[in-house]
Sequence to fold (260 residues):
Amino acid sequence: MEFIEILNKAHTSGKAFATAVLTAAEGTTPRHPGTKMIIYEDGTFAGTIGGGDIEMAVLEDAKECFRNRQPILKTYPVIQTDGKRSGSETIYIEPVFPAARLVLCGAGHVAGKLIPLAKSIGFRVTVIDIRDEALMRERAAAADEFILASSWEEGISRVPESENDFLIACGFNFDQDEESLYHLLKRRSAYVGMLASSYKRETIYKRLQERGITEEQLRTVHSPIGLDIGAETPEEIAVSIAAELIKAGKTKGKAPDPES
Fold:
């Protein structure tokens, strides 16, 4: 596989990864400058910069890049099997963190106000709805992606799963939010929330428990959603939700990057 294919796959994976590039070589070395590999945060990798002790050392140093969220430029000695040094390789390791994605299940009034706010603080926004109405598309016009689905299960399944995702059920009635939340809770994510009153929340939680969702899963849901700032209008509620997303992201170390 060509490196450009490996890189494209890494970018679309939704996972944090690092690029390791051999920038300079002296003496006898296994690979030449320009050689590259991809290292994922979980330690798996694609491509090679020559294998052996240097590659193992690069894999270890990549962990530091992920922890510190900073690149590393380092020179590694090339040691032959007889223990003698034959040269060196200078390798640049740079971590790449995927943009946080906000998935809104429902293009209602609040979602329409939240979309531009979320984008302004660094989120990529995907909106899912099961209503094929011009109004839904109009409200979601500012989103990066709009998915019109035949069901919440089908729509949510079309979004690649990522532990960096922020997921919100914000449909148009109890039944719709119950269904979307049911499927959202089956995914890995950084955050799950539901737009609801306390009464709506408890009603939907009871229904979900009857469908096999556990109390532990429900404890991960933020609902009623948004920081308590006395919000009443869709605009105010959107502001309170955006504030909660920022807070949750910073707490989990997955805050969106406004500069991205």
